[in-house]
Structure formats: structure tokens, C-alpha cells
Design brief:
The protein has one domain. Helix content is 68%, strand content 0%. It has helices at 21-43, 49-72, 82-102, 121-151, 158-183, 188-199, 201-204, 215-221, 225-238, 248-272. The longest helix has 31 residues, at 121-151. It is globular, with a radius of gyration of 21 Å. 34% of the residues are buried.
């Protein structure tokens, strides 16, 4: 692991001077950078199987469902491209699932790092989730290019693809903070998180568009912030070809609340930890 700035030398007895705001920001960037490099080696290390899976899983799912639709001779409501819909619909869920599912072991697997005075649990979580977000966004870019070359279907509003993914990452990060904090007290989160994320797949927004649903059902699913993220991504891909329903301010509010509660929970968990 690259040397983490601010680590306390062994045998040091003198209390360090408080850092200025600018110096603290610089140290924080250096800490996050070092943790990112460490996480990169751990997550996508030697055999690169983790990086390969970023492409295989969405391709297998999207390709399989797309083939079923092709063989059945039925399209999707609104005339959207089947391959684009399923592949680009699964990638945001892949990001959500990866961030949330890795949260229960985020603290336990990195507990030794907390001996460094400058490293916090939040630093560890930020490094893990930023790397995951960048990797999945890169995979999405490759899929968008491949689908465009294969079918001639190109994104109408590419910035909306990035916006939808960024909002999904913010939501997943907030949930991950809460799960990581809870995992300090009980192993239950590690046992059930994977199952819950998979069971929630049908309602998160990956498999449907809001305008496909009856009006009364639309009102219910729009309470789920991830549904808005999927709608934004699909507007980015299909533009005005299909009607979309979302509220960016609502998603930001949900993300802010999740992250605030998550930070408060992490702070309490850190006080209760024995490191």
C-alpha cells in the first residue's frame, strides 16, 4: 500500500499541531488517493477477474433477455431498442448492488487501517465507492459504444447517463454507510444484504419504465429514489422517444438524508469500536 500521509510514527510523543483548512484538505486528498490505489489493487488486482466481471454480467443478462425477446417476436412498449434497454437498465443496478453488497465488510476488512491517525471509516468508504463508480461508468461507456456500433442506437443525451449513474452512486453510498455502521454491532447485515439487494431488483426500476405502469402504481414506485435514476439514464439513451418521469431534487434530498444519517451512524460506530 502506498504510504498514507499523516500516519503517527512509532514512539512519537509530541502532540501534532492542528492542521489549517488548506493543509487538512491536502492531506485528505492524499489519503483518499492512497486508499484508491490500495483498493484498485485489491478490487481489480492481479488476475483482473473483478474488472472482467463488470462487462460479463451485464452482457450475459442483457444478451439473454434480448435474445428471448427477439425469439418471441415481441418488442418493448414504446418501441425502445431491446438490447439497449436491458443492458443499460442493468448497469445502474450493478453499481447499486456492488456498493451496497460490499458495505457490510468495508470496516472489518480494513480495520487495521484505522490505526493510522489520519484515516477514517468515511475515507475507506469514499475510496471504495468512488472506485466502484468510476469502474462501472467506464464499463457503461464501453457498452454504449458497442451497442451504438452494433445497432446504430446512440445516446440522445449522454450527460443524462452520467447524471443518473452519479445519483445512483450517491444513494448507494448513503445506504452503504448505514449498513457499514450497523455491521459493527451485528453480523446480520453481512448475512442478509446480498439476498435483500437481489430480491429488491424488481422494484428498484431496472426492469420497467414508469410509463408502462398503471397510474396508481406509478405514484407508488416514484417514492423509490432509484426508480428516478433509471428514468434519467433511459432518457439519456432514448431521449424524447419515450416518456420519462423523474425528479432530480427528490433524489438529491433522499441521497442527502441517507448520507447524513449514515455519517451519524458511522460516528457512533467508530466511538464504539475497539481499535
Amino acid at each position: 500500500m502506498p504510504e498514507v500521509p499523516g500516519a503517527m510514527p512509532s514512539g512519537a510523543a509530541r502532540r501534532p499541531e492542528p492542521l489549517t483548512l488548506r493543509a487538512a484538505a491536502r492531506v485528505q486528498r492524499q489519503v483518499i488517493g492512497a486508499l484508491l490505489l490500495r483498493e484498485l489493487s485489491t478490487r481489480f488486482g492481479r488476475e483482473n477477474l473483478g474488472f472482467l466481471w463488470l462487462f460479463l454480467e451485464p452482457a450475459l443478462l442483457g444478451g439473454t433477455i434480448g435474445l428471448v425477446h427477439h425469439l418471441s417476436g415481441r418488442g418493448l412498449p414504446g418501441g425502445v431498442d431491446v438490447l439497449s434497454f436491458w443492458v443499460l437498465g442493468y448497469i445502474p443496478f450493478f453499481l447499486f448492488r456492488s456498493v451496497v453488497n460490499r458495505a457490510p465488510v468495508a470496516i472489518v476488512s480494513n480495520q487495521s487501517l484505522l490505526y493510522h491517525r489520519r484515516i477514517t471509516i468515511l475515507d475507506i468508504m469514499l475510496a471504495r465507492d468512488l472506485l466502484e463508480g468510476a469502474a462501472v461508468l467506464g464499463a457503461m461507456a464501453v457498452f454504449v459504444l458497442a451497442i451504438g456500433l452494433a445497432t446504430g442506437t446512440w445516446p440522445e443525451q449522454p450527460a443524462k447517463l452520467v447524471l443518473g449513474m452519479a445519483l445512483m452512486l450517491m444513494i448507494a453510498h448513503g445506504i452503504g454507510l448505514l449498513i457499514s455502521a450497523g455491521s459493527v454491532y451485528t453480523e446480520m447485515f453481512e448475512r442478509i444484504t446480498h439476498m435483500v439487494t437481489y430480491l429488491s431488483l424488481p422494484i428498484l426500476g431496472s426492469f420497467f419504465m414508469v410509463f408502462w405502469l398503471p397510474t396508481e402504481v406509478q405514484e407508488m414506485v416514484l417514492w423509490i429514489p432509484t426508480v428516478h435514476c433509471f428514468e434519467i439514464v433511459r432518457e439519456g439513451q432514448f431521449g424524447s422517444a419515450v416518456p420519462t418521469t423523474y425528479d432530480v431534487s427528490y433524489v438529491l434530498a433522499c441521497a442527502a438524508l441517507l448520507n447524513l444519517f449514515g455519517l451519524a451512524a458511522l460516528r457512533k460506530a467508530r466511538r464504539d469500536m475497539v481499535v
